[in-house]
Amino acid sequence: MASLSSPLRVCRGILKELRTIQGPSYKQSLAYNYVIDQFRKNKVTGERYCRAQQEAHHASLTYLCLLTSTRNHLALYNLYHGKGERSPEEVAGLVGLRLPTQPGGKGWEK
């Protein structure tokens, strides 16, 4: 099994993602309070609760991965998402081409 990073690092990572999502008022959110409570509850346990502590740590790593992946997905989606229907002139300009013009001037081209 791969070694897990420290619980403090995971907690800080989750709080960083919450701050990115919710802005400067993230400390008043329910998610912030829940994360802090869960990390305090599973902070130090005895030997017979060791498995529960590892499960909580693994769940927090999974949640951090979810938050990070969601943020990255939204950034990529906004970057590469289609802009809707484009005119033929605009599409030709995207690939570096120009549409041919009608010789003789029929009056309909600009």
UniProtKB/TrEMBL annotation:
UniProt xrefs under PANTHER family: PROTEIN FMC1 HOMOLOG (PTHR31716)
Family annotation (InterPro entries): FMC1_homologue
Family per similarity comment: Belongs to the FMC1 family.
Superkingdom of source: Eukaryota
Function: Plays a role in the assembly/stability of the mitochondrial membrane ATP synthase (F(1)F(0) ATP synthase or Complex V).
GO cellular component: mitochondrion
One Pfam family from the record: Complex1_LYR_2
UniProt name for this protein: Protein FMC1 homolog
